[in-house]
Amino acid sequence: MVFQEELNIKELISEERERDPKFKQAWDNSRLEYKILGEVIKARKANGITQKELARKTGFKQQAISRIENKETSPSLATLCRILDELKLDIQIIPKSKA
């Protein structure tokens, strides 16, 4: 039952992306944000750093790190760069593949 509902949601999203260019853009942007945040969280955990430690090292409050990781707020580019720098991560901008 859950599988069928999940499939229907995926179909609905796919149809809406084809139908509405604004929805497609918003959906694609959101997926990119989740991908970046996922990598940040993965790196933080892989290095054994807690949100509290990351907050202390970057000068932010732990609650701010939590809100960023839970996508309750979008960090500024400067904030993201401070977090990435502390985690020894870098961003590489590459052209999207034409799929």
TrEMBL record:
<dbReference type="InterPro" id="IPR050807">
    <property type="entry name" value="TransReg_Diox_bact_type"/>
</dbReference>
<keyword id="KW-0238">DNA-binding</keyword>
<dbReference type="GO" id="GO:0005829">
    <property type="term" value="C:cytosol"/>
</dbReference>
<dbReference type="GO" id="GO:0003677">
    <property type="term" value="F:DNA binding"/>
</dbReference>
<dbReference type="InterPro" id="IPR010982">
    <property type="entry name" value="Lambda_DNA-bd_dom_sf"/>
</dbReference>
<feature type="domain" description="HTH cro/C1-type">
    <location>
        <begin position="40"/>
        <end position="94"/>
    </location>
</feature>
<protein>
    <submittedName>
        <fullName>Helix-turn-helix</fullName>
    </submittedName>
</protein>
<dbReference type="Pfam" id="PF01381">
    <property type="entry name" value="HTH_3"/>
</dbReference>
<dbReference type="InterPro" id="IPR001387">
    <property type="entry name" value="Cro/C1-type_HTH"/>
</dbReference>
<dbReference type="GO" id="GO:0003700">
    <property type="term" value="F:DNA-binding transcription factor activity"/>
</dbReference>
